[in-house]
Amino acid sequence: MRYRTAVGVAFLFLSITPVGRAARLNPLGSDHRRIRVDAYVDKMKGGWVGQMAGVGWGAPTEFRYQGAIIPESDVPQWTPRMINQFRQDDIYVEMTFLRSLDVYGLDVSIRQAGIDFASSGYQLWHANQAGRSNLRSGIAPPDSGHPQFNQHADDIDYQIEADFSGLIAPGMPQVAILLGEKFGRLMNFGDGLYGGQFIGGMYAEAFFEDDVVKIVQAGLRCIPSESQYHECVSDVLRWHRQYPDDWTRTWHLVNEKYHLNPQYRRFSCTGPEGKFNIDAKINGAYVVMGLLYGRGDPDKTIVVAMRCGQDSDCNPSSAAGILFTSIGFAKLPDKFKIALDPLSKFSHTPYDFPTLIGVCDELARKAVLNSGGRVETDSNGNAWFVIPKRAPRPSPLEQCWEPDEADNSRYSEAEMAQISALLGEDLSAAIDEFAPGWTVSKCGDDMEVGLVSERRGREDVLVTHPLNQDIGCVISRTVDLPAGKASLLKLVVGHDPRGDWDLVVRVNGEQLLRRPIGLATTTVGWAEVSVDLSRYAGQSVKIELVNEPTGWHYEAAHWAEISLTTDDESI
Fold first, then answer.
1. pTM of the model
2. How does 499-536 read in b/e, with b if 16+ C-beta sit within 10 Å?
3. CATH says 424-570 is which class?
């Protein structure tokens, strides 16, 4: 079975008894590291700000340059408000993982982590999207990230969301590795997994080190030395030594070997010769180049990682996050702090910035204790983390193009019920504008769902799509129907010209109508449907309108009108 306990993959921390409030500071040998807790928090804050700065600055350039260096003239001008990146998937996806740890603890199971990720409502791409689709269809982790089921398993996804794993693991690289085995397996495998473990290992080291070469080397110790990812980063270190003042020379060497050579793109999701390259290795190389050639300068670190191209917002986000962790929030240039919004919540999360910092602080304390460390106080009353030094033990070598057998891991009916109760795209803003009072659940992310300005002659149309081949999208509302009056549900619904779907209307769970919506049942793509609700007068009812799949072929539903009336008055 691939999910091996030989490297501690089951996330079995040492069982210890926490030391009251805090023990008194004792002399330390060379087998421990210590950091003041407030210094840890300052550096951890810096790491989050670095992510936000890198992705905000680089966002206008994302994938505009593929296999080419971004000209200096095309680098955006930094403005302080760029820091407020509360709607960036590069940041909020990893907060789903933090939430799982926050709710269930550091020993949360990989299956529960998968349920939480499957239940997320944000839009995803590549390995994340494929992994979540697998989870939603019942393929449990670690198979959700296995190459047999996920053609994007070597993509960058866990690499761009592994920052959390190091930010809550100061000086504890093994914690970052094991978090990768838990959360990285949801969508990645092989180099795609190692990329995240490498990033997490660099963050863990950045709390104690400001030499970026040593930080990179610490990250390398967290992944198998035989892997192509390790080879790629080692090449960048070697080329940096050869050309320390010319990052473009190193860029061309990276491009020739890891972009143009098919042997290093053997599981590239766009093929071994495509210009678009979202492989974890080459984008990891660009993160490292930003760190090495940035030489500790925040601006230069971000700009070099950005100008390397490809995923040019994610890469500077990772590079800046690591560097800013090393620097610490207090010492960052003001331009990265003065406009930071402390009140806005990160999209799809319960966290604003201060809450996020508090959650990470609490998880780090638990990680220190569970790893055999302790919290001590000095004579001035300052709390310190005392952390055992332990060499990291990388995960076993695996390669996406030559994978071992999948584990045949599947979710039970009870686990699937947990997922289907929450999952789907977040169309709350669209439905609030289109039909106030109604809600949308279990909506898939295919076919550009949401509110669109026009479809087949109708303006302001809501587009939905079934979640998968078995689960339809549901638009629902609970309403009190007035007594003694006739209530009528009126719908105007349409279909994509290439497909059809079934309209199902349920009231309090009872099916009142099922009607195909397609070419044979509509006029110019539209049908008017009325449902008499008179027999429910005086009752509180839950009305459900279901966009049911019929064969998994262009099954988007177009909603031009959803209305409830009683004696010609709207309800």
1. 0.77
2. bbbbbbbbbeeeebbeebbbeeebeebbbebebebeeb
3. mainly beta
